[in-house]
Design goal:
The complex is a heterodimer of chains A (446) and B (188).
Chain A lengths: L17 H6 L4 H9 L2 H11 L11 H6 L10 E6 L8 H8 L1 H15 L3 E6 L4 H16 L15 E6 L9 H8 L23 E5 H13 L1 H5 L2 E2 L2 E2 L1 E8 L5 E6 L4 H6 L13 E5 L7 E3 H5 L11 H4 L3 H4 L7 E6 L4 H15 L5 H18 L5 H14 L7 H25 L1 H4 L14
Parallel strand pairs in A: 1-2, 1-4, 2-3, 7-11
Antiparallel strand pairs in A: 5-6, 7-8, 9-10, 9-11
Chain B lengths: L13 H11 L11 H11 L6 H11 L3 H8 L13 E6 L2 H5 L2 H12 L12 E6 L11 E3 L2 E3 L5 H12 L20
Parallel strand pairs in B: 1-2
Antiparallel strand pairs in B: 1-3, 3-4
Helix pairs in contact in B: 2-3, 3-4
The chains are: A alpha/beta (446), B alpha+beta (188).
């Protein structure tokens, strides 16, 4: 049983209230940071912890913080990215609705470290009920002197606000999120300048995921070095994994990084195996944007070793043969899954969610969806299979933001490992389009 | 087309005005445009579940913006309905993880039971069906969101019936974002 740093008290009745949260050790990190540490010392602890961004990119959080420009007289901001919309990912919604004070505590400690006096939580608009939970918790934090002027007599001031989005996956990209927070369409900005130099209202800004900010709480409480003892190599600490698809026990699991993928899928402590006694076919390990892997490759690395739930092990062999830990959105597919249909579904998602700013993405995602639709529905030809790989390649690397890659990788990986299944849809149209039809062959392990 | 529920010259209620005044304190004085998305949510809740051009003009006027600045934003985000909707908007998640657990069947059943196709409102004006992309509840798929409430694990006819009956029997009034809804949320 691994340690639970974020979710240890998640099932305590009333833990969403200030009083109960405080009884279980809540807000200690704020007291420790504001009373005994300088902002730079807080940043230093986060660096020592080795914490990597939990939103998907995995960039070291402490390093991101140290990039923040600090010109005199210019306000700085911390913005929490709570626009969780990656298919397969639902951990932040769970964390915020059950433990709102954990996020608020993390926001206060992190804002202090960054010298921000006004911070925002940008939450996806669909989660209006979570916004209400957060607003109630924020009001409690103000009433108890943890927000507002001169917090705990330290001389540090902080205002914290929640801001709802309007329903757009692209706003999870940090610069699109900032545009949206400024009341505009969520079109990603050209970088540089990066948000650390010119972010919200052209002021220096750090944008961090909900889980990254929550993780600052145990890091400050226990010390960065203690935190770094958990996990394997450069994948330190714990991570929330949202497991879904054809599993016996889908749900949210806090794991110590380094758990073998096989154990995560099959042990009763975690997902309890594949539903209905079926066999596993494939896994998308880090949210819909990361490459799909057939069963054999998700359980073993390219070197034949047991694959672990770490940033490094999952991407072993690069993004083409390997995959990514990403946001921890773990989607399992059983042997009855049609890979062509699944790939088409994901392409439809990216076509729908492309902001339309860059031509390769705006046009390319439409092409991918259109061609995959005709392959899935028995109207495709062999040339179409090469066509989608070619379109995916032309999107990749040619857009302002990573939505292009997110749309391209799943298609390229699906064709790489399941090409025969695509071909079967062309050569056996009637059989392949029958409801419930499944390609009888195996994946290609390349 | 004009709404039958929104007045010709829409005005925010006093409660909405108070909430808008509170929201405006969250942003710098010269950055009031930041409040646009929260205001559109309030407007949609206040004026019958959709934002007509006149309602959007009111939002623009409230924030000192040009109407086009509101139109270009309301048309970008999927949560804002630009034409009239039924009493309940059923947002059916159709993305990968929901599809793996049966969202295609769920959509077909809802179309059959309500008599409305996706994008349409049922003949009795009760339900508008809308397919949406990922609602961040993949662990309890398939799911439907109705305003703020998530109906999860809708993988049986009984679960679908229970949801529709609850909605049919609900006394309808616009749910304003700043009010307590009285709806209980299922939690995973």
């Amino acid at each position: 049983m691994g340690r639970k740093l974020l979710t240890e008290h998640i099932n305590v009745p009333g833990i969403d209230t200030f009083e109960v949260y405080r009884q279980h050790g809540g807000y200690r990190s704020v007291e420790k940071a504001l009373k005994t540490m300088t902002p730079d010392e807080v940043v230093e602890e986060v660096k020592k912890s080795g914490l990597r961004g939990r939103g998907g990119a995995g960039f070291p959080t402490g390093m991101k913080w140290s990039f923040l420009a600090k010109p005199e007289g210019v306000p700085r901001h911390l913005v929490c990215n709570a626009d969780e919309s990656e298919p397969g990912t639902f951990k932040d919604r769970h964390l915020m609705s059950k433990l709102p004070h954990l996020l608020i505590e993390g926001m206060i400690t992190s804002s202090y470290a960054l010298g921000a006096n006004t911070s925002y939580i940008y939450i996806r608009g669909e989660l209006l009920y979570v916004l209400r939970i957060l607003e109630k918790a924020i009001a409690e934090a103000y009433a108890n002197g943890f927000l507002g002027k001169n917090i705990l007599g330290s001389g540090y001031d902080l205002d914290l606000h929640v801001h709802p989005g309007g329903g757009a996956y692209i706003c999870g990209e940090e610069t699109a999120l900032l545009e949206s927070l400024e009341g505009k369409r969520g079109n990603p900005r050209n970088k540089p300048p990066f948000p650390a130099v010119q972010g919200l209202y052209a002021r220096p800004t750090v944008v961090n995921n909900v889980e990254s900010i929550a993780a600052v709480v145990p890091i400050i409480n226990e010390g960065g070095e203690e935190y770094a003892k958990l996990g394997v190599g450069k994948s330190t600490g714990t991570k929330l994994i949202s497991a879904c698809g054809h599993l016996n026990k889908p749900g949210i699991y806090e794991i110590e990084l380094g758990v073998p993928v096989e154990e995560f899928i099959y042990s009763d402590e975690y997902c309890g195996g594949i539903w209905k006694g079926r066999d596993l076919k494939a896994v998308v390990a880090g949210g819909s944007s990361v490459p799909i892997l057939p069963k054999e490759l998700i359980l073993k690395t390219a070197a034949g070793e047991s694959r672990l739930m770490t940033y490094e092990s999952l991407s072993d062999g690069g993004f083409v043969t390997g995959t990514m830990l990403g946001s921890g959105g773990f989607i399992a597919m059983d042997e009855t899954t049609c890979i062509v249909r699944n790939t088409w579904n994901f392409s439809r998602f990216y076509h729908h969610e492309s902001c339309g700013q860059c031509s390769p993405c705006r046009e390319g995602t439409g092409w991918l969806e259109k061609v995959l639709h005709r392959l899935e529905h028995g109207h495709g030809n062999m040339h179409d299979i090469d066509l989608i790989v070619s379109v995916a390649k032309q999107i990749e690397g040619n857009t302002i933001c990573p939505l292009g890659e997110a749309a391209a990788w799943p298609v390229a990986a699906a064709v790489r490992h399941f090409r025969h299944e695509f071909e079967w849809h062309v050569t056996n149209r009637q059989e392949a389009t029958r409801p419930g039809a499944v390609y009888p062959g195996k994946a290609v392990l390349v | 087309m004009e709404s039958t529920t929104a007045p010709v010259k829409p005005q925010f209620s006093e409660a909405a005005k108070a909430e808008i005044a509170r929201l405006l304190t969250h942003y710098p004085d010269d950055r009031k445009k930041s409040a646009l998305l929260p205001l559109l949510h309030i407007a949609q809740a206040e004026f019958g579940g959709w934002v007509s051009p006149k309602v959007q003009d009111l939002v623009a006027e409230t924030l000192g913006l040009k109407p086009i600045e509101v139109y270009e934003v309301s048309s970008f985000y999927t949560m804002f309905n630009l034409k009239p909707v039924g009493k309940h908007v059923l947002e059916i998640c159709r993305t990968g993880p929901c599809m793996l657990r049966g969202s295609d069947e769920l959509t077909a059943n809802l179309e059959r039971i309500t008599g409305a196709k996706v994008g349409e409102t049922s003949p009795d004006g009760m339900f508008t069906l809308k397919e949406v992309e990922c609602l961040a509840a993949c662990g309890t798929a398939p799911i439907v969101q109705v305003r703020e409430k998530y109906y999860e694990q809708l993988d049986s006819p009984e679960a679908v019936d229970a949801m529709l009956n609850e909605l049919r029997n609900m006394v309808h009034r616009p749910l304003l974002p700043w009010e307590q809804t009285g709806l209980q949320h299922t939690q995973q």
